[in-house]
Amino acid sequence: MATKTISITEEAYDRLASAKEKNESFSEIIVKSFPKHSILELAGVLTEEEAKELEEHIKNLRIRSRKRLERMNLSLR
């Protein structure tokens, strides 16, 4: 298994160490604390109406964001 070296603060290390069992590795505690999730777990969280409202809101935000970027690009010229 490949390994990576990371830098963490003393506080982060102390918290990680205190969460760890005697025979548990730091990698095991991290994997246990941050399990992978599937997007499918969100299925059914929103009603169809809520999903449509959210989709419309996202579309509007994207339009506003594009317009803002276009204005910024024009002002930089």
- What's the total number of strands? 0
Question: What structural class results from the helix and strand content?
Answer: mainly alpha
**Residues in β-strands, percent:** under 5%
Q: Into how many domains do the coordinates divide?
A: 1
**How widely separated are the two ends?**
51 Å
Supply the number of helical segments: 3
Succession of helices and strands: HHH
Uncertain regions: pLDDT < 50 for 5+ in a row?
A: none
* Computed CA radius of gyration, to the nearest angstrom: 22 Å
Average pLDDT confidence is 92
Salient structural properties:
77 residues, mainly alpha
Helices and strands in order:
Blueprint: H1 10-19, H2 26-33, H3 48-76
Description:
It is flat, with a radius of gyration of 22 Å. The chain contains three helices and no strands. It has helices at 10-19, 26-33, 48-76. Helix content is 61%, strand content 0%. The model has no long low-confidence stretch (mean pLDDT 92). By secondary structure, the protein is mainly alpha-helical. It has one domain.
